[in-house]
Specification:
By secondary structure, this protein is mostly beta strands. 2% of the residues lie in helices and 49% in strands.
Length: 574
């Protein structure tokens, strides 16, 4: 008795497991390493010491001791770099000592190879859409493979097709962001064992039924179409309909080759919804439902009315811009914009798309008056609404000696009228510099304004009309006054002296838009430029100094709105 107690105590002190035996479970290929797993089963004997692992990497070779210090309780072991540089045909078994009664026995496990046996296939039973929630529901029969571990679900409409991994249940609801009303969605499933060996997938895809439709509200005709269910043969399609949110009722059944349906609903102002259900051939209770159709509102559509032009205005690019304001209660087939230019008949300028609201009329000259109006058609193509007339503001400028006169035609678009006209002015030595527009005056509803001339060379103006009791504005074209006079230039330059730059001076000159050419006494072109902003320093086109000489030049000087051509001589003194 004392001897037995001593053995038991020694076993406990050394970490040995009592009353159990080792069952070698499996070997998994983990890439470079092989991973070994075992279980400890109940037994009348006592395990003494550690496990010893024997292995060989080919059937024709003998086993060799790989490791002799493996703890029993760890239940897993990693054979590091077993498959480096390449995968080998490994076999393994464990040996260990057990005490049974008064005998010490050497025990060994079964010999196992790497488990590469894939589990049985798992196939989806159905993929169906809940018509109310638009959730996609997947179901399948549980996998009976003894070493089965988990399921992997795939959706091929995602950038990453992996929908969920290591899933244990046999039912899954897909509430991902892909809308099953937009397209037919493709799903598949595979299964894995405890070594993560997976059955191939891709040959048993299921595709949902995607129902789409449209309504002709002029005839109250609803047209439906759907794609065939993919996954199993369809015996029949059933169409369900509900009206004004009531219970869905079966409308009709169709052969598996029929994928469309049309019907006329003889009710006005009625909300109609549908979904389609496929029945599996040979399995009456197996089915798959489509998404619910978009809500169809029957009855004649609300004819367009009170469609407005929000504004006709000059935009940043100095083009005429027209903005349309739809009535949110109306149904539009089209909105056509017509333009009447001075002494002309109406012409179709533009047809607005369903979500378009702004049109830039590049064919209209903004210094001429143009009148616009809208004609809107209902869903049956009948014109039911014509807007009020609207026009662009054309601003004109008059030179009144010491003053400048502004006048413009009244702006009419808004039912509430114009609250005020705001005059904006900018100034500078040239038109290019006159870009700092500031509000000059509120002109109430007058359409004339007198401004004093200043000392600068350029003054530019535009008008903003402000809607009365509204937030819309309309901007006129821009007009500029440019002071002009004599143009002066030197007859000689000293490149290395004080007067080292040749240029033109005078009121209203825009050097950035002035070009200049220099020729030598033999008529050869020495220098040319399209901008005189930096002047000329007596160099040629290659940037080299031209020797002292008398040269001939031609210039095209932009002054005000005109171009002045000048010819002359210039002497270079070095």
């Amino acid at each position: 008795m004392k001897k037995i107690l001593v053995i038991i105590m020694l076993s406990l002190m050394s970490g040995n497991v009592m009353a159990q035996k080792i069952v070698f479970a499996r070997v998994c290929n983990g890439g470079n390493n092989n991973n070994l797993y075992w279980q400890i089963h109940a037994n009348a004997c006592i395990i003494v010491g550690n496990l010893k692992l024997y292995s060989k990497d080919a059937d024709a070779l003998p086993f060799f001791l790989l490791d002799s210090g493996i703890l029993v309780a760890s239940k897993t072991y990693s054979h590091v770099n077993a498959n480096v540089p390449s995968t080998k045909d490994w076999s393994y078994f464990f040996t260990y000592q057990i005490i049974c009664g008064i005998d010490t026995i050497l025990a060994s496990t079964d010999t196992l190879k790497i488990d590469d046996q894939k589990p049985d296939s798992t196939i989806l039973d159905s993929v169906s859409i809940d018509p109310i929630t638009n959730s996609v529901m997947l179901g399948w029969t549980s996998n009976k493979t003894p070493d089965f571990s988990s399921y992997y679900l795939y959706n091929y409409d995602r950038a990453d097709p992996r929908l969920i991994e290591n899933y244990k249940d046999t039912f899954y609801v897909d509430n991902s962001t892909i809308n099953p009303k937009s397209k037919s969605l493709s799903y598949d499933i595979t299964s894995s064992d405890s070594c993560d060996n997976r059955k191939e997938y891709g040959n048993y895809q299921h595709k949902t039924i995607c129902l789409k439709g449209s309504i002709d509200t002029c005839e109250n005709k609803i047209s439906l179409n759907w794609n065939a269910y993919v996954g199993w043969p369809v015996r029949v399609y059933e169409l369900y309909r509900r009206i004004n949110g009531n219970t869905f009722q079966l409308v009709d059944s169709f052969a598996s080759s029929v994928l469309s349906f049309n019907e006329n609903i003889n009710m006005v102002n009625t909300k109609v919804e549908y979904f389609v259900r496929a029945r599996k051939l040979g399995v009456p209770h197996s089915s798959s439902s489509s998404n619910m159709s978009s809500l169809f509102n029957t009855g004649f559509s609300i004819n367009p009315f009170d469609t407005k032009i929000s504004y006709v205005s000059n935009n940043i690019g100095n083009n005429i811009e027209v903005k349309v304001e739809r009535n949110p209660l109306s149904n539009y087939l089209s909105i056509d914009l017509y333009r009447i230019s001075e002494a002309m008949f109406p012409v179709l300028a533009h047809s607005f798309a369903s979500t378009e609201s702004v049109y830039i009329d590049n064919d209209a000259i903004n210094t001429l008056k143009h009148t616009y109006y809208l004609m809107s058609r209902n869903m049956c193509g009948i014109i039911t609404d014509t807007s009020e007339l609207s026009n662009n503001i054309v601003l004109k400028l008059s030179d009144l000696n010491s003053q400048l006169g502004l006048n413009w035609g009244p702006y009419f678009t808004w039912n509430t009228g114009v609250k005020e006209y705001i005059i904006y002015r900018s100034s500078g030595s040239t038109v290019a510099e006159a870009s700092n527009f500031v509000a000059l005056s509120n002109s109430a509803i007058d359409t004339i304004y007198i401004d004093d001339k200043g000392a600068l060379g350029a003054y530019c103006y535009y008008i903003n009309a402000i809607e009365n009791a509204g937030s819309n504005t309309s901007q006129s074209n821009k007009v500029c006054y440019i002071k002009t006079g004599n143009i002066y230039y030197p007859n000689a330059i000293v490149p290395n002296g004080v007067n080292n730059i040749f240029n033109f001076i005078g009121d209203g000159i825009d050097l950035s838009k002035s070009s200049f050419q220099v020729y030598n006494r033999w008529g050869q072109l020495e220098y040319n430029t399209e901008s005189m902003s930096l002047g000329w320093k007596g160099i040629n086109n290659a940037g080299q100094d031209i020797p002292g000489d008398v040269l001939f030049f031609t210039a095209q000087i932009r002054q005000g709105t005109e171009t002045v051509n000048i010819k002359g001589n210039i002497t270079i003194i070095r």
